[in-house]
Write a structure and sequence with these properties.
Blueprint lengths: L1 E5 L6 E9 L3 E11 L25 H18 L23 E7 L6 E5 L6 E3 L8 H12 L4 H7 L2 E8 L6 E7 L9 H8 L3 E6 L11 E7 L2 E6 L2 E6 L8 H11 L8 E5 L5 H8 L3 E6 L2 H13 L6 E5 L2 H6 L2 H7 L2 E4 L8 H10 L3 E6 L2 H13 L2 E9 L9 E8 L3
Parallel strand pairs: 1-3, 8-9, 13-14, 13-16, 14-15, 16-17
Antiparallel strand pairs: 2-3, 4-5, 4-7, 5-6, 7-8, 9-10, 11-12, 17-19, 18-19
């Protein structure tokens, strides 16, 4: 039985108390470290071990990169049954701190005034923070300003309604936008301009109409003051994105993913970009001469994708469609899939819907490029693709999330015609 326990590192010995037993796994709590690894280091965050954001600050960075490669390799052998696939060494960061361009703070109303922080590990208890060393400097400065401003003024009044605060910073211009999540629309008297002055951000919006008790963002958004989007520049492409949009949190690693894919784009053709978001990869493909059919179920993200295409003068190279990927590929997108030389997949953590994989294999798209943030669901989907005649040409892990247990993996597959 697998036992999940925070604290022990690979190769260490520890005394652990089992605190929870489920049907297929157990959860333990470390009582005593008996034998330490040579890769153990002192964590640099004062709330590490309480805050659930980071899991491996106590593991040396070069060891983190090796460990993440092993995660991918183990998933491919154990789940995908791919015993002979080579997994490249993990591509990491020059400096594995201050990299995140987005943060989501929880507002803890059990305190007076409300405290701001992140969820504790395996809990909805909130760990109050003073700052965060893994976010980019403008965001860390914003966290400190939010904490200092929560007792009086326009922000204190807004905070009485808030459940989450989501902020995003652009590394190109150091601009910051803030989204305040409330259950109902913030009161008409909300002092947007006052909030801008107090918090020193470039724009504030209100997110509301929540999908559930723990939703970080609502389905509806309205501007309170200033600009609600930041501008980011990646590999010469310009993107305007809001705090609520999906966009890679680590621009340095995004550029390295682009660089890895550069040679794949030498012969422009048509490509389907599934789960295209605000057009991050679609515009990269279009700039290299490819004609892109993008699919995204979030209507707001598709509008941003259109805007970003115009911003880069690439609107003639791209077509974006609103809808669930599996439904679009079964209907309007099927013709695009049949014309395409490649499909790019960047699904959520749960991986691809089986109907998406069926559509790809029924058409036998020559190339499948799959970017995943979860090694287990990636391996599950690869098992299906490999069984249908595809072969792995490249498996490249990236450290999109240093200091955490997450690993981003880019896989290039080709249909084996012989």
């Amino acid at each position: 039985m697998v036992v999940f326990c925070f604290g022990p590192l690979p190769g260490e010995r520890a005394r652990v108390r089992i605190v929870t037993v489920k049907q297929r796994y157990a959860v333990g709590r470390m009582l005593e470290l008996l034998q330490a690894s040579a890769d153990r280091v002192d964590p640099f965050c004062p709330v590490f071990g309480e805050c659930g954001g980071c899991q491996v600050q106590h593991l040396a960075y070069d060891a983190q990169l090796r460990w993440k490669r092993d995660i991918v390799h183990n998933a491919l052998t154990r789940i995908a049954g791919a015993m002979d696939i080579t997994v490249n060494p993990t591509i990491g960061m020059p400096s594995p701190r201050a990299y995140r361009n987005k943060m989501s703070l929880v507002v803890d109303h059990r305190k007076d005034p409300p405290s701001l922080g992140f969820y504790r590990q395996r809990s909805h208890d909130v760990v109050a923070i003073d700052g965060c060393p893994v976010v980019v400097e403008p965001l860390d400065a914003t966290i400190r300003t939010l904490i200092a401003s929560r007792t009086e003024g326009a922000f204190a009044r807004m905070l009485t309604q808030a459940r989450h605060l989501v902020a995003r910073a652009g590394t190109a211009h150091s601009d910051v936008v803030l989204s305040v999540t409330t259950e109902e629309p913030a009161g008409k008297g909300s002092d947007g301009p006052g909030l801008l002055r107090e918090l020193g951000v470039d724009g504030i919006e209100n997110s509301y109409d929540l999908t559930g008790e723990n939703a970080v963002l609502g389905r509806r958004h309205r501007s309170l003051a200033g600009s609600t989007a930041i501008e980011e520049t990646v590999a010469g492409l310009r993107y305007r994105i809001s705090a609520a949009s999906f966009f890679q949190v680590n621009v340095t690693i995004l550029e390295r993913i682009f660089a890895t894919m550069e040679s794949w784009l030498a012969r422009p053709a048509e490509i389907v970009d599934a789960y295209c978001g605000a057009g991050t990869f679609a515009l990269f493909f279009a700039r290299h001469g490819w004609r892109v059919f993008g699919i995204e179920e979030n209507r707001h993200a598709v509008q941003e994708a259109h805007d970003n295409a115009r911003l880069n003068a690439l609107e003639k190279q791209v077509t974006f469609t609103v809808g669930r990927v599996e439904r679009v590929l079964a209907e309007a997108g099927n013709a695009a899939l049949q014309r395409s030389r490649a499909i790019f997949l960047d699904p959520p953590r749960k991986g691809c819907d089986p109907a998406v994989l069926d559509a790809i294999t029924s058409v036998r798209v020559p190339h499948v490029w799959y970017l995943s943030c979860d090694a287990a669901t990636l391996a599950r989907d690869l098992r299906f693709l490999l069984s249908k005649g595809y072969r792995c040409e490249t498996v490249q892990p990236f450290d999109m999330f240093p200091q955490t247990g997450h690993v981003e993996t880019l896989v290039r597959l080709e249909y084996a015609t012989t």
